[in-house]
Specification:
Strand order of the largest sheet: 1-2-3-4
Structural class: alpha+beta
Largest sheet: 4 strands, antiparallel
Length: 69
Amino acid sequence: MAELVLTALVSPGDWGVVTVREEDGGKLITGAVSSLFITDGEAEMEFSLLLSEYAERPRAARLNGHRSI
């Protein structure tokens, strides 16, 4: 899912389980049960780096900690 969101940030649109659209100078990420508004390019870069770091961790490490991204 993290990789899908990263792809959708680069190419906004409807990606099935996730939709990204540009709005008010930022980007709105909408999923099945939540939304996130990224205010500007710097915030998008920070979020993308955090998401990339999360996606690169082994699956077991992501699940054991139950840590939000």
